């Protein structure tokens, strides 16, 4: 029987069936479940690497020895891994090497909506784009074969709606491959100019060979001729939308988006009257089609490059139709429900203190980016992983260089994000004589992506015990003399610590240590209650921004159903009327 | 049953993912094509979440777009109306009457809309509104709101045999939680609207 698999589970299954040996990744929505599922297979060595660059280098290393290897990451993670990616294109592989990149059109959980197809184009690496879970599995297996046959890394690109949809999949057994032999070959694996110049020629030839390979093309590209007055070129999730909106049109579904199939496109275009290109984000395919001389193609003229497409957007852009929906007898304006820090979140104490102190906060990527939202409105900037540390340093240097007033600034960064790319920023602060204060939010887990282990937690991806990086010693070793560990739920002490470190004329690190409330071992006991006889209705408890505290009929109350029992609110009441049994 | 589009809406953390997984398993068990679209990541942190379950003979898009849902299964009443334009004309709304205040309401920037259930009852939709939270608590865990609501949903789909629902539960619920979830499902399935 077919099995209902998440796109990401199907990629993991495909890699397992293809006999993959090594998988190294860094978590990132919407790619995380690929490696989480890989870790359940005993035949595969898997790891969470500290960042995507390291992860890909691990996979390249494994591939060179003859193992089949894979790394999965989100779109912005591929930027981090771009350095090894572009040169691994030149070295090629020994064991098959596959990189999965998950784009996030619509930015469900991302800071931009870049289109990773351009990475494939620029690095001369083949890219496959599946359109459902079955193809996630099939294309992953095909990717390993293409990788070995054409001596190249292969990228599989998904988008959120492929990664996070479930559809039915036919499963097969794992294929155990004979181990490939490692041969020292400096012309292939040592990329100095003399060798790389020669490899570039091979790279170009390989891409040309692949484009003209009928066997590969027939496996992943397909033409569905139907009514020839309208032809549509599409790929990935857009194929599914196309089939719903234009059930009678002829369709060229492209599975290999780099190199694009020039001859197939020319043949298809010659057989249809009108030609549409339907793709999310940038006009990657449309530009290619026009570039090979097919000027009748239309795409972004109708369909936006912003956000996701869907059937309603496509139909209304092309036909001008509107959906027919149920209507309410009276309009209701539904207040927005933005994501919030969970009740019991250790970050809440940090942001309560920082927003009270009105310091500038150089932010980073994680649950704590939510510190930018009301009521804290505390975070000033958020660009990419690790940027909090280096941008805080840059802010200070910028103000010094322009003779501006120095605004007191702290950088905030999670434990996993610090391991990912915060360390180098801290090195820069020490080396270049900055005096910034960095707060490492150590909640003992990688939070936002759904609880992955990292080098500071003491466990591997398979939950085996592992050496634990000591953040205090690490920061001291980098040359930070002022390193202190504070509890973010001790509000006065935390405030005191931030205030002392900001007033110091040297760099400092505060490790804000308290585990994520969603971790299984975190138990806070009974929920506090607000003693209504004593409550003077000052409303100070609400300033914490805890979703469990609310006001109804003039009374301040704690929602027992969602309260985590952390008791941080007990400190907030100036009249001692929030009571918690210990 | 030709095609069935069920939109599951709620607040991050209420168990919408498990609900969609359960429905997906049921669809696979009756031999239908099925696609489920989920939400992971940031919006799970207490935000408004939506998942889509599409069942039929040949499903293409995993998404239910505006005007395409046959049923909205809402875990919270404000979420039922937030997504109402995704419902077909004359579609069905099954909603938990529980209210969870969004942060702008908690901070007093705006108020929780009044009379949501009355307005829904007056609209051109088939409405089933119930206190799924209390029924879940009665069955042994407040966390089974999702399963109670699926019990109610199961009643509106008589073409799916009762044993298939139990098989679906067995497929997605860990063994040690099966009893309490089976009780919760029965509470929903046997719930009589007052």
Distance between the termini of chain B: 28 Å
Detail the poorly predicted runs of chain B: none
**Which CATH class of the largest domain in chain A applies here?**
Alpha Beta
CA radius of gyration of chain B: 16 Å
Global morphology of chain A: globular
Global structural class of chain B: alpha/beta
Strand content of chain A: 15-25%
Name given to the CATH architecture of the largest domain in chain A: 3-Layer(aba) Sandwich
The major pleated sheet of chain B works out as: 6 strands, mixed
Characterize the biggest β-sheet of chain A: 7 strands, mixed
Overall pLDDT of chain B: 92
Task: Tally the structural domains of chain B.
Answer: 1
Helical fraction of chain A equals 25-40%
What features would you highlight for this structure?
heterodimer, A: 582 residues, alpha/beta, Rossmann fold, 4 domains, seven-stranded mixed β-sheet, B: 194 residues, Pyruvate-ferredoxin Oxidoreductase, domain 3, six-stranded mixed β-sheet, 38% helix, 22% strand
What does this structure look like?
The complex is a heterodimer of chains A (582) and B (194). Chain A has four domains: 3-217, Thiamin diphosphate (ThDP)-binding fold, Pyr/PP domains (Rossmann fold, 3-Layer(aba) Sandwich), CATH 3.40.50.970; 221-319, Rossmann fold (3-Layer(aba) Sandwich), CATH 3.40.50.920; 347-513, Rossmann fold (3-Layer(aba) Sandwich); 529-579, Alpha-Beta Plaits (2-Layer Sandwich). Chain A is built from 20 helices and 24 strands. A seven-stranded mixed beta sheet of chain A has the order 3-2-4-5-7-6-12, with helices on both faces. A six-stranded parallel beta sheet of chain A has the order 16-15-17-18-20-19, with helices on both faces. A five-stranded mixed beta sheet of chain A has the order 9-11-10-13-14, with helices on both faces. The longest helix of chain A is centred in the middle third of the chain and has 19 residues, at 193-211. Chain B has a single domain (4-189), classed as Pyruvate-ferredoxin Oxidoreductase, domain 3, CATH 3.40.920. Chain B contains eight helices and six strands; from the N terminus they run βαβββαβααβαααα. In chain B, strands 2-3-1-4-5-6 form a six-stranded mixed beta sheet, sandwiched between helices. In chain B, strand 4, helix 2 and strand 5 form a beta-alpha-beta unit. In chain B, helix 5 crosses helix 6, helix 5 packs across helix 8 and helix 6 packs across helix 8. Strand 8 (165-169) of chain A pairs antiparallel with strand 2 (33-37) of chain B.
């Amino acid at each position: 029987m077919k099995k209902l698999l998440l796109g990401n589970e199907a990629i993991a299954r495909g890699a397992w069936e293809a006999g993959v040996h090594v998988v190294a990744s860094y978590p990132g929505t919407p790619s995380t479940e690929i490696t989480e599922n890989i870790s359940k297979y005993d035949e595969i060595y898997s790891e969470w690497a500290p960042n995507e660059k390291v992860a890909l280098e691990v996979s390249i290393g494994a591939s060179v020895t003859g193992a089949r290897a894979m790394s999965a990451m989100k779109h912005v993670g591929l930027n981090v891994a771009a350095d090894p990616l572009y040169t691994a294109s030149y070295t090629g592989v020994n064991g098959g090497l596959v990189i999965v990149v998950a784009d996030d059109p619509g930015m469900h959980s991302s800071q931009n909506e870049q289109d990773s197809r351009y990475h494939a184009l620029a690095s001369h690496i083949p890219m496959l784009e599946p359109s459902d879970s079955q193809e996630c599995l099939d294309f992953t297996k095909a990717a390993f074969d293409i990788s070995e046959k054409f001596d190249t890394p292969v990228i599989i690109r998904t988008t959120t709606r492929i990664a996070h949809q479930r559809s039915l999949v036919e499963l097969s057994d794992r294929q155990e491959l004979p181990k490939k032999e490692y041969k020292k070959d400096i012309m292939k694996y040592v990329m100095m100019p003399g060798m790389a110049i020669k490899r570039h020629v091979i790279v170009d030839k390989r891409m040309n060979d692949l484009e003209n390979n009928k066997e590969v093309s027939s496996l992943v590209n397909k033409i569905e001729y139907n009514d020839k007055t309208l032809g549509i070129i599409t790929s990935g999730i857009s194929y599914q939308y196309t089939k719903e909106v234009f059930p009678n049109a002829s369709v060229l579904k492209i599975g290999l988006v780099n190199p694009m199939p020039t001859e197939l496109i020319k043949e298809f275009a010659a057989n249809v009257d009108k030609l549409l290109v339907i793709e999310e984000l940038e006009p990657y395919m449309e530009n290619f089609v026009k570039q090979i001389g097919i000027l009748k193609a239309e795409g972004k003229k109708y369909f936006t490059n912003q956000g996701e497409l869907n059937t309603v957007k496509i139909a209304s852009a092309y036909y001008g139709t509107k959906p027919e929906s149920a209507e309410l007898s009276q309009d209701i304006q539904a207040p927005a429900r933005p994501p919030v820090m969970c009740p019991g979140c250790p970050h809440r104490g940090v942001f309560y203190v920082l927003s009270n102190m009105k310091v500038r906060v150089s932010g980073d990527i994680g649950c704590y980016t939510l510190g930018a939202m009301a009521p804290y409105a505390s975070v000033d900037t958020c660009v990419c992983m690790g940027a909090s540390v280096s941008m805080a340093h840059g802010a200070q240097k910028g103000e010094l260089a322009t003779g501006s007033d120095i605004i007191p600034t702290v950088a905030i960064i999670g434990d996993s994000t610090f391991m990912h790319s915060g360390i180098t920023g801290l090195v820069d602060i020490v080396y270049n004589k900055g005096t910034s204060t960095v707060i490492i939010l150590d909640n003992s887990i990688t939070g936002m992506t759904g609880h992955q282990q990292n080098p500071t937690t003491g466990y591997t991806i398979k939950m085996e015990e592992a050496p634990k990086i000591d953040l205090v010693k690490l920061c001291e070793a980098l040359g930070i003399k002022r390193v202190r560990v504070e509890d973010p739920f001790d509000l006065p002490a935390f405030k005191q610590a931030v205030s002392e470190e900001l007033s110091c004329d040297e760099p400092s690190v505060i490790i804000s240590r308290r585990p994520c409330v969603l971790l299984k071992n975190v138990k806070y006991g009974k929920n506090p209650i607000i003693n209504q006889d004593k409550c003077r209705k000052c409303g100070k408890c609400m300033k914490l921004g805890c979703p469990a505290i609310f006001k109804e009929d003039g009374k301040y109350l704690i929602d027992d159903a969602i309260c985590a029992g952390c008791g941080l609110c007990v400190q907030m009441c100036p009249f001692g009327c929030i009571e918690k049994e210990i | 049953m030709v095609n069935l589009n069920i939109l599951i809406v709620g607040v991050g953390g209420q168990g919408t993912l498990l609900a969609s997984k359960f429905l997906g398993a049921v669809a696979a068990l009756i031999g239908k094509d099925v696609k489920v679209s989920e939400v992971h990541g940031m919006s799970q942190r207490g935000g408004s979440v939506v998942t889509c379950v599409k069942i039929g003979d040949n499903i293409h898009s995993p998404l239910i777009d505006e005007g395409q849902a046959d049923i909205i299964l809402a875990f919270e009443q404000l979420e039922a109306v937030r997504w109402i334009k995704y419902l077909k004309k004359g579609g069905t709304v099954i909603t938990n009457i529980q209210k969870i205040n969004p942060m702008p309401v908690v901070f007093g920037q705006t108020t929780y809309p009044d009379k949501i259930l009355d307005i829904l009852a007056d609209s051109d939709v088939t409405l089933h509104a119930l206190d799924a939270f209390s029924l879940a608590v009665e069955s042994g865990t407040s966390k089974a709101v999702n399963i109670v609501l699926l019990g109610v949903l199961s009643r509106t789909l008589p073409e799916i045999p009762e044993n298939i629902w139990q098989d679906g539960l067995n497929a997605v619920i860990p063994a040690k939680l099966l009893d309490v979830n089976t009780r919760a499902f029965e509470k929903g399935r046997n719930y009589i609207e007052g």
